[in-house]
Design brief:
The structure holds 3 protein chains of 3 kinds. Chain B is mainly α. Chain B is built from 4 helices and no strands. The model of chain B has no long low-confidence stretch (mean pLDDT 92). Chain C contains 9 helices and 8 strands. In chain C, a hairpin with a 2-residue loop joins strand 7 and strand 8. In chain C, 42% of the residues are buried. The mean pLDDT of chain C is 95.
């Protein structure tokens, strides 16, 4: 199947989308949020090595921890969705690309919601 | 510039990743991507762990046992290394986004620093964890 | 370990290439097979073997890798001298582009020992014992070491690399202060050899839509030129998830530029300008 279009027209393609800064900026903002949040989370997990279920639940129930965990989940899944979308766009070039991107975005939404509900359940239940 | 006849065979493509030399630039970049994908899987595990914790000690116990098993610890060690590599690499990327550190010398110094910092932080994290448990 | 400038050749490397099969993921017409070995015409005291990618479009065969023994006392010090020696003394069908032989025209850009560089400015003494010479990576090959650069030059034309003005033409020169003129230093010197674009993994996977470092460096050259008055259109033209934002700051481009330029930095400046105009 020969391409008979001129090289310039092929290079221009469908033209510039005139959008692209949004996702790039969002990935950086979520990254900046994730640096302190993930370090805090890693330090907390290390501090709780070997503690039992009850201690862990009491820690998760404190309001500050619950808020930080929810922020962590939000930033983490936002950053993950954007990053994975870029990876898929890089390597998948067929129509499967759109299905994969939709699956990743919806999956991240679902997982984030599940995580937030779990934290709220721990925080609110007596 | 196209071949004049439609029956001529297509021109071969010169090899790219098959022959291009791996350099600190490309290797750290692909490692940042690979660790990012691994950490996405870890995010899923994080949610599974939280949901198990929220639904009571009976659902939490098998998840905790899996993490505490020897295979779980190996995976967790790999995950911590991936986390610190992606974190340090990510900070390096954020610095680049302010248009600083683009001279080749800075690129190489920051690159090796990322590798060194990741190893040091991983070992420190696991030593701290061991001292907490012990 | 610490590379200070792009002309530094690493003495040792853990891997000369990524540990994947030689013809990994390669289409049928591009698979490379073992070729002929060409001994030097007479025995020499200092010899080096060059493995060179060959492709003859008239033969109907796949590309191959020929091994040439080069008498280093009979040819000049640069890789281009070795190629010319081979063409004169051993195999006159060896085909490559060349012109200035001093690193300013960009014709002899090729992949030497795994990295893209100009053959006329790479010393033979910097090469490995078994030197490998391939054409610029990920390009359609016309013959031997001659790639088809049509698409790359079309991408260059797509950024409209000329001065655009909205105000009336001045009586004499378009004025520019010394500070303003210094802003295009490091960008106007590009010789369009395409070593950088051909070494960019993002361009390998998305070269049809991603403009690549060479074209984006030139796009920045025009964005930062104070005499140009079309910044808005230029930025609109570039703001695209593929044209600009396939760049993930891999930085193979800056590592390989034979003129010591910094396409990675130019692209970062474009991204910064993109943020500045909407915030």
């Amino acid at each position: 199947m020969q391409n008979m279009r001129s090289p310039l027209v092929s290079a221009i393609g469908l033209g510039s989308a005139k959008k692209g800064v949004g996702p790039w900026w969002a990935e950086r903002v979520s990254a900046v949020a994730l640096v302190p949040l993930t370090l805090w989370f890693a330090a907390s997990i290390i501090a709780h090595t070997g503690s039992d279920y009850a201690t862990f639940i009491v820690w998760l129930r404190t309001p500050l921890v619950a808020i930080l965990m929810i922020l962590l989940l939000a930033a983490l899944f936002y950053h993950t969705a954007l990053g994975l979308q870029v990876v898929i766009e890089d390597y998948v070039h067929s129509a499967t690309k759109f299905a994969a991107v939709i699956a990743v975005r919806l999956g991240c939404c679902a997982l984030a919601t599940a995580g937030v509900v779990a934290i709220l359940r721990i925080a609110v239940s007596g | 510039m196209m071949p004049s006849s439609t029956t001529t065979r297509p021109r071969p493509l010169s090899p790219n990743v098959q022959i291009y030399r791996p350099q600190l630039t490309s290797v750290l970049s692909i490692l940042n991507r690979i660790t990012g994908i691994l950490l996405s899987a870890c995010a899923v595990v994080l949610v599974v762990w939280l949901v198990a914790a929220a639904w009571g000690p009976q659902t939490y116990a098998p998840v905790q046992a899996a993490i505490a098993s020897w295979i779980g610890r190996i995976v967790l060690f790999g995950a911590t290394f991936a986390f610190f590599l992606h974190l340090c690499g990510g900070i390096r990327h954020l610095v680049w986004d302010t248009v600083h550190g683009f001279e080749l010398r800075s690129i190489y110094i920051s690159g090796w620093s990322v590798v060194a910092a990741s190893v040091v932080l991983t070992v420190a994290a696991w030593v701290a964890s061991a001292s907490m448990a012990g | 370990m610490i590379i200070r400038s792009s002309d530094q050749v690493p003495r040792t490397a853990l891997f000369k290439r990524f540990p994947i099969p030689r013809n990994f993921g390669v289409s049928r017409e591009s698979r490379i097979r073992r070729g002929k070995t060409w001994p030097a015409p007479r025995v020499a005291t200092r010899m080096r073997t060059f493995e060179i990618y060959r492709y003859d479009p008239d033969s109907g065969e796949n590309p191959r890798l020929d091994a040439f023994e080069v008498d280093l006392d009979d040819c000049g010090p640069m890789v281009l001298d070795a190629l010319i020696w081979i063409k004169n003394k051993v195999d006159s069908t060896l085909t490559f582009r060349r012109s200035c032989r001093e690193g300013i025209c960009g014709s002899c850009a090729m992949n030497i020992d795994g990295t893209n560089w100009l053959a006329c400015t790479r010393f033979i003494s910097d090469l490995a014992e078994l030197a490998t010479i391939y054409p610029l990576a990920n390009l359609r090959i016309i013959k031997d070491l001659v790639p088809d650069l049509t698409h790359l030059f079309a991408q260059y034309a797509a950024i409209e690399p000329w001065l655009k003005s909205k105000t009336a033409e001045p009586e004499r020169e378009r004025l520019q202060s010394a500070d303003e003129r210094s802003k295009i230093d490091g960008y106007y010197e590009c010789i369009l050899c395409f070593c950088c674009t051909s070494g960019c993994p993002s361009h390998w996977w998305n070269g049809d839509r991603f403009f690549g470092p060479a074209v984006l460096l030139q796009a920045w050259r025009w964005l930062t030129d104070s005499r140009d008055e079309a910044k808005e259109e230029r930025l609109d033209n570039l703001e695209d998830p593929f044209r600009l934002y396939r760049c993930h700051t891999i930085l193979n481009c800056t590592r390989t530029c034979p003129k010591g330029l910094n396409p990675g930095k130019a692209i970062a400046e474009i991204k910064k300008m993109m943020i500045q105009r909407r915030s």
